[in-house]
Amino acid sequence: MTAETGNIEGDDRIIRESGVDARVAAIIAPVLRATGFRLVRVRLSGQNGLTLQIMVEREDGTMTVEDCEEVSRAVSPVLDVDDPIEKAYHLEVSSPGIDRPLVRKVDFTTWAGHLVKLETSILVADRKRFRGRIGEADEESVVIERDQPAYGEEPTVRIPFETIADARLILTDDLIRDALSKDNKARKEAKKRRGEEVDEDSAEDETETEE
């Protein structure tokens, strides 16, 4: 992933693809928007021959197995027509997962307080790799509160969004609880919008996930 790729209309990600991955992203982005999903990441890897992983989520951050199947059915025809990959490949549609990549500015606000691994494309405070908790974020940058600062380093560093090349949440018990709670709330709100009955005694109720 890189921050230096061409624009895709309506794509608000700060970390985007290059090369073949970028061509795939440009092809599928309009289809995803039309079906109510947003792109997180495209990655073509050499696993099992060639695997094209398309990571997506709904606007509210949720993603089910059925959603993955829906996205697969929607993007397969346009990929077959445009044929951006010369060799045969396996298509894999997935959710971002709990230890997800952070690709939008809003992701850093949504997951503030959680641990993140982050790499920059240029030196920031004499480093390119950072690990710490996500602090405050504005339109231009995010503060990382280092969990293990080296001798002489400031405990916090402000990193401009334009320099971020890769960022991913680190799996912790707190992250799991928060992710389950956010997912549960989002699903309940989605049901309310559709006029469906909400089960307040669900096993994944937010009161249980926040204990």
UniProtKB/TrEMBL annotation:
InterPro entries: Ribosome_maturation_RimP (IPR003728), RimP_C (IPR028998), RimP_C_sf (IPR036847), RimP_N (IPR028989), RimP_N_sf (IPR035956)
Region (Disordered): 182-211
Subcellular location(s) per record: Cytoplasm
Major site of localization recorded for this protein: cytoplasm
Family: Belongs to the RimP family.
Described purpose of this protein according to its UniProt entry: Required for maturation of 30S ribosomal subunits.
Protein name: Ribosome maturation factor RimP
